[in-house]
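As described in the Methods, two query proteins were run sequentially through the folding procedure within a single session, without resetting any intermediate state between them. The first query and its resulting structure tokens are shown here.
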Amino acid sequence: MKVFTILVVLLFVTLTFGQEAGWTFEKVLFQYDLEVSNSYGMHGVAVDPDGNIWTGMYNWPTDSIVTDTDTTYIYGCRIFDSDGNELDMSPVNILTGAVTDTITSSCRGLATAHDGNILLSVAGKLYKINYQTGEGMAMYDYPEYTGSLTKAAVAEDGKIFIGTVGKGHPIKILNPDLTEIGNALEEYSGAYNRAVAVTSDGKDLYLGSTWVGIGIPHYHSDIPGVLPFAAVDTLGNAVIEGVYDTTMVVDCDTTINGSDTTITCDTTYTTSPHMEKFWAEDVTIGPDGNLYAADTQIDFGYTPYRGSRWWVFDLETGEELYSLGEPEGDPSSGGIWNGRGAAWSTDGTRMYLADFGYNNITVWKKATAIGDDQPHVLSTFELLQNYPNPFNPTTTIPYKLDKRAHVELTVYTTTGEKVVTLVNETKAAGTYEYKFDASSLASGMYIYNLKVDGKVRTKRMMLIK
């Protein structure tokens, strides 16, 4: 008897994209003129108290030292003002001061310390750099490890949390001067990891996961540095509505009677909902207290339904709030390939995202008007998700009215440019469906906006031709 098991993915796709987007794309702050590659890419972003944006590339040097026998490449930090102009002291290639060193290892993450200075993770080392002068202030050498470190995370009291990209090593807790306090976790072996995030009180720790992604593991300690962190739950993994995994089992019996051979096969099927595991390339807690996590690129083939965008989670409930970015879309209008860092302006109104594949830093602003979807406000109308989604070239947009009201249904680009007004009239209470024909539009993400008596609801839809 022989048994063959085959895993089949059935695709009945009814995807929905970010629905209550808290941010809208504004511009590209800076971009290297490079092709998308897994060999190099933007790998960090941080904002200092003066509002300047620090950036770092993986495996793409800012300078080199050439001798008769060798070439040493330097991987410094480049620094820009909020208009995208590079500062005079940029790039910071060589550290002087309390720490003297040449940065000869690629950036693996950037963060802002509680005093405003910059934390740069490289291979085996964490540097603290004076944001005003570019001088070295302190350096932590991870014990008995020369591989890449994660991006650091900073608690409100200044304590710093950092781990290794490779599996099987501790997550460390450091003082603000980078001296070691102890281990937050004795060992993290769940997955390779590029980033650490910590709540302001230092009690809740969130880790990334990639190769192979397992979601966003969450750990808690009542007294960090004294009591160990214990596993709580995992965020980000999601059952994809309308997509099913089917296991096919073929059971064959062979009967031999003289010179005759008979093979009889029975086939059984078991179908279950498809669970997509989150590959968190970056995790960062924003000034709003939400967790921002970048799911890995769709191009890898492991996250076809949720990859190549940022997802935002409410840490009080663990609820997924919305997503950001057009998956593998045009980088000049908010496309995301593979996020590797998030930072915010000092007033919290601008968000800066680092993208590995597109080699850029993009700027996002707090959403108003078309992005202002507030489900907690009692309303007399409801905007529903279009179907099918994605679509080509027609889709249906449903909405409901609890009372007679003036209705405006409008389609926008992700940058806020009006495409077309579909409805602009007074309607009676009831359920409505508008069939939208996008034959004349280019492929991409669009926003549709329902305005009723001055109140607005917004959702997104994806046109794929």
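Immediately afterward, the second query was submitted; its sequence and tokens are:
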Amino acid sequence: MPPPEYPVKDIRWVSFSCRADEPLSPGDPRWCDFTALRGGSAVIVELADTLEQRFGDIEFHQCLLCGHRGSGKSTELLGLKHWADEKNFLCVWIEVDLYFGLAELQYSDLFLLAAESVEREMRKQGIELPSENLQDVVKWFAEVTKEDLEKVQSELKVEAGAEAGGGLSLLGKLFAKFSASVLAGSEHHKKIRQELRQSPNVLINLTNDLLKSANEKLVQNGREQGLLLLFDNLDRYRAEVINDLLLKGGGLVRRLGCHAIFTMPVELRCSAEQTYWDQFNATVILPMLALRRRHAGWGETVASSEYDTEAVDEMVQALRRRIDIDALFEDSQDAVLLVKLSGGCMRDLLHLVDTSRQKSRSSLKDMPSKLTRQGVHQAILEYRFQITEGLLRNDYQRLVAIARRAPEAQLFDEHALRLLSRRRVLLYRDRENRWFDVHPLLIEDEGFRHVHDATSSHHTG
């Protein structure tokens, strides 16, 4: 069945059009420019400006893109890729977790991934890399991983015979076996990765020789800007893992012989801002969409709280690009409520919409034609249960203090960073300030209200 035209009017297409983990390319009809709601600073412009700069002592730019999960980093990177492709880079977008799961990443994983991804993309472009560079990497990789090179070559020939074109190169085959073993938690490959950690220079030099050849070939073929690698989804790893990779091990990562952008968890950028700023050519924060002003107060309910009407309407219009709100909601004002409850997180909004669709179905026999008021209500309750799981009294106390705009509650201390990492607190920015606020789904939570009301008299006094 062909994909639908947007906005969809059939409830059976709601899940498809509202996939929360699907990044959008600039040409997608659902794509929106949210620069104004992010404080007026365009992420693509900031990163592109850095990539275009030339410094005598810096050959390649290494940049960081930071933000909450669900803030839109992948969509912004795809927008940057579109710009880079037009500017004669060869830009490769890499979803790191697809290859290594959420294992303990190390510098060698990124270098191996860089070598394999570039070799694959160059073949796709019809540009051959020097065979000696490839052979050096392949032989060394086979030796380190204890693979029988002749056996791998014969397997590849059999596969290529069964399927025209083959699909994988020898390096791709070795890397696929390696990453599959990492995903499976193989003890053998845990030892290999430990060995790689002990002697970084061989892998770094072999990879950089390959990247240097790729850059030279690209220049010969009119891609004078060379390689740009986008290492996405690093924010899905534990903050400690990425801190070890990009900060403590940053000296190794920054030796990568091409331009690169790495995503990172929001709490790392906020906890060690100056340190990262000093080590990387650019560090850019992607805040949530600000649907409220910095000093806006909270009422007893989200509906009674202060919101920026124009900002809310802009996000509602973004949802209208995906689904026909008037045709699919029993009450179109429920869509406005879900936007407010999302806190400006598009991923949360899409989850809320799709869960509302699920909850609107009452039996196997009956397929609803609309998202019902009851379905929306149940979706809100379910998502609130998820977001409040594991919250303790001291968490609620801090959340209430943040909601009341207590100055000390806005400090980026360990407690606030933990709430940021779990998206109980959301980071925003306007043209002058950066601040965080409580996720709106918590405002009507029983635990939040209990602490809020218990401390109201003291706060008022």
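The first strand starts at residue 62 and ends at 67. We note this only descriptively and draw no conclusion about the first query from it.
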